Amino acid sequence: MSRIRKSAVFPPEILPSCAPLDSRGRLSLRGSWRLQTKVGRVPYDMVMRKLAAVEEARAVMTEGMEWGVWKWLLEKRRVQEIADRATAALHEADRKVKASWSDELKTAYKELVEQEKPKRGRRQEKDPEGVNIAPEVRLTAKKVKQAYDEGQRARVDAEDTFEEAERRMSTDLAREGARKALESYDLREHAIRKAGAVDGQTTSGGKV
Predict the structure, then answer these.
(1) Is residue 2 part of a domain?
(2) Which of 15, 25, 97, 110 has the fewest CB within 10 Å, making it most exposed?
(3) What is the pTM of this model?
(4) pLDDT, tens digit, for every residue of 63-81?
(5) Bridge partners of residue 36, in order along the sequence
């Protein structure tokens, strides 16, 4: 990946909402956000362009918190399409990040996913040959999974709220759904950044 110059100016549509800017509107790479410019081994700009869909969703959900019932009825289809694109972008970014993990971390994470399934539906798989999962790797996988699950719970909660708002034709519930959607975007992007920050994980149990 080409080195990002500290003075580089990026189009707003490829920057996440958390990107720190200096007084001239330029991207600042100071502080812990430096890790967030490297999402696994996936090119930074590729992932951020995908997440431009999330910024679009944030904008419409923010507007929606001020809408009345008729505005919600008129914009319902457009809001759903924008929200669907944001969900797809987040899912793809998460997939790309996790695809760059070491075999050790992938296996540890997959075990956590399998544990949530009913016993009858679980796949009994052994660790890949030559992969010993260190305790610290399992802990890393657990923390990433917890962040992912929190984001998914927030997404489902927002979707359920929108469905109830539509059923009851409630403006208050629609606004609440918009607020919950905004919260879910923050949580899911946080989970993706957390997953990307473990790129230094090694199959020999190295530190994260």
Answers:
(1) no
(2) 25
(3) 0.69
(4) 999 999 899 989 999 999 9
(5) none
